[in-house]
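I had to read the description of the data format several times before I understood it. For illustration, here is how one protein appears when written out as sequence plus structure tokens:
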Amino acid sequence: MTACLLAIVSTLTLTAQSVYDFTVKDDAGKDVSLADYKGKVLLIVNTATRCGFTPQYKELEALYEKYHDSGLEILDFPCNQFGQQAPGTIAEIRQFCTLNYGTQFPQFDKIDVNGANAHPLYTYLKSQQGFGGFDTTDARGKSMDGMLRRLDADYDKKADIKWNFTKFLVGRDGRVLKRYEPTDKMSNLETDILFEVNPVLSNIMARRSVRKYQDKAVEHEKLEAIVRAGINAPSGMNRQPWVVRVVEDQKLIADVTAVYKEANAEQVSRDKDFKNMFRNAPDLICVCTPANGGGELDAGLLGENMMLAAQSMGLGTCCLGGPVRFLLQNEKARFFIDRLDIPADYKLNYIIAVGYPDEQPQAKPRDASKVKYIK
């Protein structure tokens, strides 16, 4: 019987696509599908009422009150596996949290988060975000690391939950974004929550350069909206030193691609997915700036507006410079430039490929050490 249940849990964890595939019991013993929280930003926490980290309930409640109206839900799962620090019934735990910390966020029935009886939700969470280590430059992190390493020298090589008040941040689409250990700074967690609940910030963080597109043209109305967002970008003295050309003509793209293929036959032959010279995008936004220089900064702001607008509509983009160099240097491609009807005192600066994405690139690391705050 136990083996059968373990097999069911394992299958569910392997086939789950998001946290929405799981059902949990609330503090009244009623089944609750996490699909009820679709579209919300979730913070899932295993808690205890007699732990050194128990005062984090106050900080969690503060986060809940601050961001709940913006879409944050905190899901509290008491767990008695760490030092037996969550004794009592779920009713007693609820009373303790309400009286001492005024918690209002949803609290669920007690569960195990590790071992043979671990709830399938937690098995899934750990599979998505393993243990990243404690910050041993922090006194509490160093203390936790020392305590756990004395019990198991290889504790850090396992994805298991290490202690009470481990937290998982889940995006509005059900993906597990990040894991926080109980010693991690709540201020860092709050910043990450802000980026998820604020639609502008979450759109910025979600945008990636897309280089694979579906065989589907972007609707004209969406292209118009993208360009409108672009030309509403700020510019010095409101000079608006740009000219924008949107290419929807598939034959024009195909014809200039034929020239590109002739000039780059070997390169094209190595790319089995090659469709056109603009990263296979079905539509293009060509941005031009004054030929005698100037306007580059303003044009950059224009382009970023357009790429973020496209992202908000479920479209992918990629800012291209290579095709521009080819178009300007290859005389056979001159017809493409001529078709754009660029004013004589302007030049083609960059091209934005736009279309429905056929890939979901992961974010590449950003170097935060390049930023300094002068106070």
Remarks:
- The CA atoms of residues 90 and 359 lie 44 Å apart.
- The first helix runs from residue 2 to 15.
